[in-house]
């Protein structure tokens, strides 16, 4: 039977990160109504009709069905965990739903190290992250703070 | 002839102002975190990290865990709770659910569009299958901004998620915009 590879994020340490470092872009999509339906099922939340009924979405002034902001934020948070590796501990995460992701849109998940620093005997990487669509519009700007151990400790 | 530009009404009425700081009674998820819901959640996130099911890969966490943002979505419908879809079919329902959290009073603002502005999370630790999650919610602030597209009401909600033993999991600050 065909299987997908399942593995933990790479092993990375504080020393592996530097200011201005760009992470490899993660591409999701084209997003589908199915992605939204699967998310609604995983959350047991079916109360926002504009996430699955185009008629309701347009009646509420939206251009059509939009994917859930928390779904997109969760995809971005997952990318942050993948980029910073299995030893990272996500301490803070912020995202803003600036634009909508609609069915058939691509989502490019991007990240860049803002600073790497030590505080109170702990080492952290702060990064800017975002989701950009195929038109170059930033739909979800965000940021994250990850605690990482030093190599050999 | 010049068109008069009228100021938008002040939607932060005394009744709205009175609910700033309101706290909901703590609510518990209807059941402990289940392996099946963890699986559906990590699959919805397209995240196939074995920490979610493989005890060996999850050894550093003391066993399999739920994705880090899971607690935010763990407050599922109780077995005996009314069907929320019934409320959407009520004749006078305008399509916007203003009960932003169970146990918090409605934000009585007659604006039609509700937008989830985003989240700021403080993350303490992963939840494990078998742990039951408790939520405490409160309105931190409610304020109005008048933009080019009209008035917008920002509702800032702090949600604190912890285990029923009081161990902190996640604190979320969610901004909801009514416009």
From TrEMBL, chain A:
Highest rank taxon of the organism: Bacteria
Name of the protein described by the UniProt record: MaoC-like domain-containing protein
Species of origin: Plastoroseomonas hellenica
TrEMBL record, chain B:
Residue ranges annotated for the FAS1-like dehydratase domain, each copy included: 30-169
SUPFAM superfamilies assigned: Thioesterase/thiol ester dehydrase-isomerase
One of the Pfam families matching this protein, by short name: FAS1_DH_region
Domain of life (superkingdom): Bacteria
Alphabetical list of Gene3D superfamilies matching this protein: Hotdog Thioesterase
Protein name: MaoC family dehydratase
């Amino acid at each position: 039977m065909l299987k997908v590879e399942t593995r933990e994020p790479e092993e990375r340490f504080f020393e592996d990160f530097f200011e201005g470092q760009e992470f490899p872009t993660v591409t999701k999509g084209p997003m589908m109504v199915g992605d939204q339906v699967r998310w609604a099922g995983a959350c047991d939340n079916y109360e926002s009709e504009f996430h699955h009924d185009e008629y309701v979405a347009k009646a509420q002034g939206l251009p059509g069905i939009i994917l859930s902001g928390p779904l997109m934020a969760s995809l971005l948070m997952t990318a942050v965990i993948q980029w910073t590796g299995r030893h990272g501990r996500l301490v803070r995460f912020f995202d803003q739903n600036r634009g909508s992701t609609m069915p058939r849109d691509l989502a490019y998940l991007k990240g860049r190290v803002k600073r790497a620093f030590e505080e109170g005997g702990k080492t952290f990487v702060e990064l800017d992250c975002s989701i950009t669509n195929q038109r170059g519009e930033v739909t979800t700007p965000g940021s994250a703070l990850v605690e990482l151990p030093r190599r050999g400790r | 002839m010049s068109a008069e530009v009228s100021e938008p009404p002040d939607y932060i009425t005394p009744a709205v102002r009175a609910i700033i700081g309101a706290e909901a009674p703590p609510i518990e998820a209807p059941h402990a975190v289940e392996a099946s819901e963890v699986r559906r959640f990590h699959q919805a996130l397209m995240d196939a990290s074995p920490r979610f099911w493989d005890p060996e890969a999850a050894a550093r966490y003391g066993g399999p865990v739920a994705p880090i943002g899971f607690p935010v979505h763990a407050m599922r419908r109780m077995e005996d709770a009314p069907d929320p879809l019934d409320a959407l079919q009520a004749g006078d329902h305008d399509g916007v659910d203003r009960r932003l959290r169970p146990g918090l009073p409605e934000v009585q603002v007659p604006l039609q569009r509700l937008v989830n502005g985003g989240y700021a999370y403080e993350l303490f630790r992963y939840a494990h299958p078998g742990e039951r999650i408790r939520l405490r919610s409160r309105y931190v602030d409610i304020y109005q901004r008048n933009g080019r597209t009209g008035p917008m009401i920002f509702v800032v909600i702090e949600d604190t998620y912890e285990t029923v033993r009081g161990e902190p999991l996640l604190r979320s600050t969610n901004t909801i915009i009514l416009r």
